[in-house]
Amino acid sequence: MFSRILVANRGEIALRIIRACREMGIETVAVYSEADRGARYLSLADEAVCIGPAPSAQSYLNIARIISAAEVADVDAIHPGYGFLAENAHFAEVCRSCNIEFIGPSVEAMQRMGDKVEAKRIARAARLYTIPGSEGALEDVDEAVRVAHDIGYPVLVKAAAGGGGRGMRIAHNDISLSQAVGQGQAEAEAAFKDSRVYLEKHIEGARHVEVQVLADADGHCVHLWERDCTLQRRHQKLIEESPSPGLSDHTRAKLCDAAVRMAKEAGYTGAGTVEFLLDPDETFYLLEVNARIQVEHPVTELVTGIDLVQEQIHMAAGERLRFRQRDVHQRGHAIECRINAEDCASGFRPSPGTLQRFCLPGGPGVRVDTHCCQGAAIVPHYDSMIAKLLVHRPTRQAAIATMKRALAECDIQGVATTVPLHQEILANPDFTAGRVDTGWVERVW
Amino acid sequence: MAEAFEPEAEGDRPPPVDLETIRRLLDLMSEHGLAELEIEREDMAVRLRKAGAEPPTPMAAGIPAGGAQAGVAPPTAPAEAETAEEELPTVTSPMVGTFYTAPSPDADPFVQVGDHVAEDTVVCVIEAMKVFNEIRAETSGTIEKVLVANAEAVEFGQPLFVVRPD
């Protein structure tokens, strides 16, 4: 087992990793940029090293600085969290070549899952449905138009090196399609240094359901059931829950088995998530595989009682999975609301500032994951999430009631937050009835 | 504790300050961890400065200042004939790594206290991932103090040397 881990991230996930390590008796080294100097969670690590100025490129995305910090602090592993370098295969390679374990899958598995075209090919080999679309990367606009006519509009132009909702454009006809391809390629080149784009049918009225998987180095893989992440705005998740409401047990089982097949076919190790799109008649298609721990992982932790970050560390240390599929149960119902410092009334503009007041709920069935505290400054350099508010109750109805109670207890002053939006969603009958799809939030608000 | 108090304004000499007020001001300074306090009112003007002041703590905006027109000077601000050491420029580390004072273990150090440096004088090397990076003074002046020991780990922004500019 590792004796010292460097946390190559910031904010709530850095704190999450530090917490897991403290419980396992592993020393932690936190890194921070000048914008995060003085953050309270840094003092919970055994050591904290300043690695650069505020801009991510010179700090949290800077491989040289992070590796230097790892070397001077003499760590034996690095946990990349999510975002930043978590799915950067080159970073994983550099870590391992410096004799520092990277807590995540192999470089090859990351590369295979990171290339969305390759991931689809592997999915087909694992007998998963993939969303109808182009065979691979688009050669030119003519091919795009041919495929679009084949599968039918509307279609999505997606970046092969994208993912996480980035680098996607919708097109409803030939003209907007040729524009979308050109612009998509240019954006992909700028953002990912890879201009390849591919085409997919845009499935309307779809639900987004993902499956958490865990695999050891010996090829044993289990699923930890599903999470429903249909409530999104501009492809960014707002609310997640487990189990997925209205999903038949039959489909649930097929979905989870498919996820395990996919992970095995891809040679995946560690914790990962297989994302699916479900069309209105519960046919499910592979969306993508996320080769990292995800923001919404606590939803699964609550219903299964399994600490995912600790399991990641066990897997990375070469240990075998300590439980079998039949040991993994879903108990009760969990919901997560992502609290962002954004102004819902002004187009969800980020709302940086100082937390003059920051009181979050507690009591039965409530879990709060946050790195923020009263008096903390919310800086504009990074993402705007300030807390994850979760509830876990025996039924969905009870969970909704507890979440409403918990949201009403939130007292956050100094920045605008998405709490009011969550309250409106929770009160909406479509949400309660499970009558939502990925476009619902944008239609209603 | 306090060094001295002196009337500030030129021309009009305001009445001297009573001891009770001084005591209250000293308490205020201790309470807020201030190294320096300057107050100017119609009826008095006083500046108090602690000897051997500790490194400055950043002042949050809007700390309530008692009394009318009380101006609180952060510890490094005022115009003094003699610049305190805390105010001298420092050479800070532009990276994370291991600090070395000399180009090799048996060589002489690049610089020592008292040496004069130009802006492009190499003052140390910082090693990161087996690459040795030369760090330059970036200030023309004299090495006042070396803040880090040989082979010590340094982080981004960490002060390495204090330089007294020409």
Give a verbal description of the structure.
The complex is a heterodimer of chains A (445) and B (166). Chain A contains 14 helices and 22 strands. Chain A has helices at 11-24, 63-72, 89-97, 107-114, 116-125, 141-151, 174-192, 249-265, 297-304, 308-316, 396-409, 419-427, 429-433, 440-444; strands spanning 4-7, 27-33, 47-52, 77-79, 101-102, 155-163, 166-171, 197-201, 207-215, 221-233, 236-242, 270-278, 284-290, 333-340, 342-343, 349-350, 353-354, 357-359, 366-369, 377-378, 385-393, 411-413. In chain A, the strands form 6 sheets. An 8-stranded antiparallel β-sheet of chain A has the order 13-12-9-10-11-14-21-19, sandwiched between helices. In chain A, helix 6 packs across helix 7 (174-192). The model of chain A has no long low-confidence stretch (mean pLDDT 95). Chain B has 2 domains: 1-84, no CATH class; 88-165, RNA polymerase II/Efflux pump adaptor protein, barrel-sandwich hybrid domain (OB fold (Dihydrolipoamide Acetyltransferase, E2P), Beta Barrel). In chain B, strand 1 (36-40) and strand 2 form a beta hairpin. Chain B is elongated and about 65 Å long. Chain A binds chain B through residues 34, 49-53, 59, 64-65, 67-69, 71-73, 98, and chain B through 95-98, 128-129, 153-158.
Percent in strands of chain B: 25-35%
Helix content of chain B: under 10%
Overall tally of structural domains of chain A: 3
Summarize the main sheet of chain B: 4 strands, antiparallel
How many helices of chain A? The count is: 14
What summary fits the major beta sheet of chain A? 8 strands, antiparallel
Number of strands of chain A: 22
> Roughly what is the average pLDDT of chain B, rounded to an integer?
76
**CATH architecture level-2 label of the largest domain in chain A:** 2-Layer Sandwich
Number of strands of chain B: 11
Oligomer: heterodimer
The overall pLDDT average of chain A reads: 95
Query: Strand-residue fraction of chain A?
Result: 25-35%
Order of strands across the main sheet of chain A: 13-12-9-10-11-14-21-19
Shape of chain A: globular
